[in-house]
Amino acid sequence: MSPRRRTATASLPTLAKVPTGISGLDEITGGGLPKGRPTLVYGSAGSGKTLIGLEFLVRGASQFNDPGVFMSFEETEQELTTNVGSLGFDLKALVDSGKLLIDHVAIERSEIQETGEYDLEGLFVRLNSAIDSIKAKRVVLDTIEVLYAGLTNTGIIRAELRRLFRWLKEKGVTTVVTGERGGETMLTRHGLEEYVSDCVIFLDNRVIEELSTRRLRIVKYRGTAHSTNEFPFIIDEKGVSVLPVTSVRLDYPASEERVPTGIPRLDAMLDSKGYIKGSSILVSGMVGTGKTSVAASLVRQTCRAGRKCLYFAFEEAPSQIMRNMRSIGIDLEPFAKKGLLTFHATRVSEQGLEKHLLAMQQVTVAADPAVVVVDAITDFGTIGAALEVRQMVLRLVDFFKLRQITGLFTSMSSRADLEETGVGLSSAFDTWIHLVNVQGNLERNRTLVVIKSRGMAHSNQVREFVLTDKGVELVDIYNSPAGAFMGTARLAQMAADEATRLAQAEGISARERQVEEKRRALEARINALRAEFEAESREAEIVIAGEKAREKAVAAERKTLSNHRAARPAGGKERRE
Amino acid sequence: MSTQAHPDYAAAPTPEEWKLRLYVTDWTPRCVAAYRNLMKICQEHVGDKCNIEVVDLLEQPEAARRDQIVAVPTLVKVSPRPSRVLVGDFTKLERVLKGLDIDPAGPPREGTTMISWQPGNAASGPAPLFLETAGAALEATRVGTGPEKEGGTMQSGGMDGR
Question: Rounded to whole angstroms, what are the CA distances from A363 to A311, A345, A354, B120?
Fold first, then answer.
């Protein structure tokens, strides 16, 4: 957004909102209900209208210090107090402290004889006095349509309702009006939407494949960009929770921190560092390809570093997982005992998707882990339609990401050749590791490939995936001039190649020895010749020395002779020599 | 004002004694019309000693909640039993009679109608003038005028009919 536009937006008056305090509802409405205006909440019987209205008041009174008036046309104060007592709402305390006022309006058609014109001024008086007595900021009318059942003159009721909502707006109270779901032409049975046009919320309670799911949809919210999606919601001991709590915007932090995978060679494949912290990892593969062992490797690595892990198991009991992993040398039990590893094991069919999602979120918040394993997301396919499962997983992924929790999800593929996520969700995951069993030479071999990994340069090589008694190891697939090999074929080919190499090596050394011997023979001969030469040269020297001595003797003799022949005294000048 | 002024509230009413309570909000034209219509019907059809208590909800808003009043005007037949609730301005005679369990074919009966005006608080003024004039025309006696809140107390004492 450009700075200019931001300024323009800031100067515009924005719709004031009143937070409901209901988990998730304020997020999807962008802050709550329109302040000082009525909101229509409609749905069929048992869809949770009354509860949402009551929680709006209870949260308002206890969290925002907004007193509220609950005008009940159906249930008495006593009934309401009992009904919501199980949700932890203490209505009596709120009533006693003047934060809440419950007025039960009893109308029975059989009791009332209409004798002419009338108005609903009595209702106005009651509401006005109730609002003024506790200075209420919030009002709930549940369900005002009962008036149509108690009184026959619909013309009067319509006119009076129109007047009532106008009056409530003037009064400046934020009102929730509940209504019964109508037929085809109208949202509500008596067309309440005609009077309440600012915000309309629809509640639905559907049974899909024998599992009841509650949903909430914002049909209309004047002056607010709102999501038109249906959001699942649940009612549990903490009241109403609309899901998701977080996945409305994609604004989670992106980390640079890395999380080692626990498998050194896999780290090497992932940019030599491992997964990215807070990212979502999908490990897919058919049955028996080793998905759980990849997950367990990460758990062991993380727990060894002293960080907490949370393991959602939907297929096996924790003890069984630990036993199985121990057989491949990954002992998780000490971590579980130390409290670093928490298992949350449930049967998928135990509850609906929404309850699972909420339970998982609550467990995650309580455990505060660095790494979460969900084994396996495909199990949810048994309790929900593909689209719902997809949304649920997406919400879960977002939930973890927002909390910077590294999430590893396993997914069972139905076919080996397809690199399918099982729930059609590849875009939700940052890193996707696919495991395939390759069959050949009467054996199956595990392989691992990183299909994608956002934010890093990852290896494109298929690696052989070996389960040893020390955990998971990745082995390069053996490349030789004869082809690529793995498993026993890899070992066989490696042995064959080694033999060849050995044979070749032996050949080389034999030649070398030959040459050496030749060299030695040559040297011997050279030495012999040199010795011979030395002997000869010594002899020659002796001869030469003898000759020289003789020559000297001859010369001396000759001098003596000549001196004798001259017969002159020494130094005479007659003869020159 | 004390209970002695109209012992019929405190004592168990005789079968002949009628006790009606009319809820209005101020004297809007509809309420005045309802009041006049009711007086006429009481005069012509009830016959017996008829005691009408008028409650102005604007002065006693808590009465609306306590007595489960939604529509205005509302008439509650406290006695004789069974108690009945009528809403509207009493323009549809046959419905009024049916609501009061009176046989429309029966002969007109003689009787007196007493009006009990119940001010909500000490600050409220005297009863509207037309109560007097309407009452005079019908030989009604106006009772219960006074600054005390006793009227309200007595009225809640008469709630056993509901």
Answer: 10, 11, 14, 58
Interatomic CA distance for residues A305 and A313, integer angstroms: 22
C-alpha span between A57 and A80 (Å, rounded): 13
Query: B95: which chain A residues are within 8 Å (Cβ-Cβ)?
Result: 113-116
**What pLDDT is attached to residue A571?**
54
* Model confidence pLDDT, tens digit, residues A40-97: 999 988 888 999 999 999 999 999 999 999 999 989 999 999 988 888 889 999 999 9
Distance of CA A45 to the CA centre of its chain: 38
Phi, psi of A270 (to 5 degrees): -100, 70
Q: Which of B61, B72, B90 is opposite residue A119, by nearest beta carbon? A: B72
**CA A86 to CA A275: how far, in whole Å?**
44
> How far from the centroid of its chain's Cα atoms is residue B135's Cα?
12
Kindly report, residue by residue over A222-238, the tens digit of the pLDDT: 887 777 778 878 787 77
Tell me the pTM. Answer: 0.61
Per the omega criterion (within 30 degrees of 0), is the bond before A376 cis?
Answer: yes
ipTM: 0.70
d(CA A118, CA A123): 12
β-pair type (A431-440, A443-453): antiparallel
Of B68, B72, B92, nearest to A105 by CB-CB distance is B68
pLDDT in tens, B69-88: 999 999 999 888 888 899 99
Q: Is the pLDDT of residue A295 over 70?
A: yes
